[in-house]
Structure formats: structure tokens, C-alpha cells
From TrEMBL:
Gene3D superfamilies: HUPs (3.40.50.620), Tyrosyl-Transfer RNA Synthetase (1.10.240.10). This is Tryptophan--tRNA ligase. It is found in: Cytoplasm. It is an enzyme of class 6 (ligase). Catalyzes the attachment of tryptophan to tRNA(Trp). Its main location: cytoplasm. A motif ('KMSKS' region) lies at residues 193-197. The gene is trpS. It comes from the Bacteria.
Length: 326
């Protein structure tokens, strides 16, 4: 089975990216043909600084490798190094209904605080580019967080539509979503999804200094009352912290609830900080080693792009033929 997934380099990778997505990618490498990419063409759909993007792409590559993506098992590459992503996106845009794009939650969220003149066509067409990413490799499975399901659905719709119009070409891709932690919430506002764009108090970057992790968890908002119980409606903040604890410590939530029965929030939060730090400590070490060997990272990305391009070229040949392009 062919598997594909990626993260946008629009800032430091956060624990939501890891717990819901990257953590699922690691075991898939053992059994399937996996492609993991750094989604830079999507990151330029909102205002950004070129020097930051460059740095973020390198950081994402280091993060991927430090967290356990293995270039001997998976194809790891940068989206813009495979020009066919943009080419297929254009062709798919010709069959993408405007109404589908207008309904996209992410588009609505990202455009709502901006004047129309400042919302680019790229942001609107973003889901068609994502469909191109997926269909270019005839992907069958995408391990993603819950917020990407609407985009995956569009890729499925476009695969069906293309097959119907031009003949069977693409399999209908499926998503794989974690049973718990598919939506990690902000530390400062548990009604919102953890995201880089909300500001530093809202997210925990995987590789931020340990002292900052302690500080951010200490300052994370909690709910009224003092029981440490999982109840998303009544206790959204504590439920989110319990989810993070459970995934990092690999312990069921019910066991953690028992462990903290009759204990206060402060102790729970300080233990959680240590659990999070411990989880990422070995990855931190690996990342430091990789930093000393940037040439090797560059080579991995260049070999990855070559492999990805060879698959992409074949698909584009077939797509163009089917669409009647000479
Ligand atoms: P991005 O960069 O927003 O997020 C990368 C992955 O992390 C997941 N994620 C979360 N999961 C749980 N809780 C959160 N708070 C949270 N925040 C992010 C996302 O669901 C995602 O799996 N459009 C995509 C990137 C993309 C892509 C693709 C993914 C482009 N093309 C093709 C898969 C296949 C995005 O912006 O992800």
C-alpha cells in the first residue's frame, strides 16, 4: 500500500503534529511504501518571510529525521522539488467545483480576519493542491489529524470525478486518524485546535527548550473544580492535558485519572511537563547529531525528490494522455 503525509513548514513543528500525525507514520514505514514530504508550496499561501520559510524547511527536515523517519525505508522530500505537484494541481483545479472550496473550514478560518484583497487565490485553491499531492502518487492511505479530513474528502471526490471523466486512473485515498489525540487543543484556549498561528502560549513545539515546555505547561489554562478527570464537555482543558499525558506516557487515560485521584492540578501539570520532556529527549539528542551532518540531510532530501519525481512523472504522463494533452 502507498502511504503519503506531510506537515507545512509554517513554524516549528508542535506536539499536535507529532501525536496525531508523525507518531503514526513511524510504524507504517515497516510495512508500506511511504512518502513523507515537507509541504512548502502550501506554506506560501499566507503571508510569510522568505528567510523564515527557508529556516523552517530545514528545521522540519531535521525534525522528521530526528523523530524516526528513516530514509532507508521512506521517501523523504520537499514538495517544491517535485514540480509535478503544481502541474497536477492546475489540471485538477479545472474539475474542482468552486462550491467545494468555499465550504472548506480551513479556508474560512484563515481568510476570515483578512480583507478580500489580501486573500490570495492560492489559499482558496489550497485543497486542490493537496489533492494533487495525494493523487500524484496514487496514494492509498494518509495518516493525518482530524482537521485534514475535509481536504482528504475533496481528494476522494476529485479522484472519482477524474476517473469518471477521463477513465480509471486514481485509487480513492483513505485517511487514517488516531483513535485518541486526533485533535490536540491549545494550551491557552482548549476550545481551539493547537496551532502555530495562534501564538506561542497556545502550542508546545516538539524541540523547544525544556524550561519553556515546563513554563508553558505550568501556565496552561485549567478548568473549574479540582478533579483530574476526562470529560471533554465539562473539563476541556484537563481532558486535553490528559490526552497529551496518555499519548506521551503510553498509558490509558483511566490509569492516569486513578493515579491523580485526590491530587491537585499543580502536581499533575508538573509531572506532565516531565513526561513530555522525557518523551522527546532521545529525539532531541538525535536532532543534535543531525545538525552536525547537514550535508547528509541535504543528500537525503535530494535522493527523496529523485524517487518522488520518478513516480510523479509516470502519473503525469498518464494524466496528460487521458486528458488529451499532446
Ligand atoms: P498541517 O501542517 O496543518 O499539519 C500537519 C499534520 O498535523 C496534524 N495536526 C494536528 N493534529 C491534531 N491536533 C492538532 N492540533 C493538529 N494540528 C495539526 C494535521 O492534521 C496534519 O496531519 N494541508 C496539510 C498538509 C498537507 C498534506 C498533504 C497532508 C498538504 N498536502 C497531503 C497529507 C497529505 C496541513 O496543512 O497540515
Amino acid at each position: 500500500m502507498r502511504v503519503l503525509s506531510g506537515v507545512q513548514p509554517s513554524g516549528a513543528l508542535h506536539i499536535g503534529n507529532y501525536l496525531a500525525a508523525i507518531k503514526q507514520w513511524i510504524p507504517l514505514q515497516e510495512k508500506h511504501e511511504c512518502l513523507f514530504f515537507i509541504v512548502d508550496l502550501h506554506a506560501v499561501t499566507v503571508p510569510y518571510k522568505p528567510q523564515d520559510l527557508r529556516q523552517n524547511v530545514w528545521n522540519a527536515a531535521l525534525d522528521y529525521l530526528a523523530l524516526g523517519l528513516d530514509p532507508a525505508k521512506s521517501t523523504i522530500f520537499i514538495q517544491s522539488h517535485v514540480h509535478q505537484h503544481a502541474e497536477l494541481a492546475w489540471l485538477l483545479e479545472t474539475i474542482t467545483p468552486l462550491g467545494e472550496l468555499e465550504r472548506m473550514t480551513q479556508f474560512k478560518e484563515k481568510s476570515k480576519h483578512r480583507q478580500k484583497a489580501n486573500v490570495g487565490l492560492g489559499l482558496f485553491a489550497y485543497p486542490a493542491l493537496m489533492a494533487a499531492d495525494i493523487l500524484l502518487y496514487k496514494t492509498e492511505l494518509m495518516p493525518v489529524g482530524e482537521d485534514q479530513l475535509q481536504h482528504v474528502e475533496l481528494a476522494r471526490t476529485l479522484a472519482r470525478k477524474f476517473n469518471h471523466l477521463f477513465g480509471r486512473t486514481f485509487p480513492e485515498p483513505k485517511s487514517q486518524v488516531a483513535k485518541i489525540g486526533a485533535r490536540i487543543m491549545s494550551l491557552a484556549d482548549p476550545t481551539k485546535k493547537m496551532s502555530k498561528s495562534l501564538g506561542p502560549a497556545h502550542f508546545l513545539a516538539i524541540f523547544e527548550p525544556e524550561e519553556d515546555i515546563r513554563q508553558k505547561i505550568k501556565s496552561a489554562v485549567t478548568d473549574s473544580g479540582k478533579e483530574i478527570v476526562y470529560d471533554v464537555k465539562k473539563k476541556p482543558a484537563i481532558s486535553n492535558l490528559l490526552t497529551i499525558y496518555s499519548l506521551c506516557a503510553d498509558k490509558p487515560i483511566s490509569e492516569i485519572e486513578k493515579q491523580y485521584q485526590g491530587k491537585g492540578y499543580a502536581g499533575f501539570k508538573s509531572d506532565l511537563a516531565e513526561v513530555v520532556i522525557e518523551t522527546f529527549r532521545p529525539f532531541r539528542r538525535k536532532r543534535e547529531e543531525l545538525l552536525q551532518n547537514i550535508t547528509e540531510v541535504r543528500n537525503i532530501l535530494s535522493r527523496g525528490a529523485e524517487t518522488a519525481r520518478s513516480i510523479a512523472e509516470k502519473t503525469m504522463k498518464e494524466v496528460k494522455e487521458k486528458m488529451g494533452l499532446l
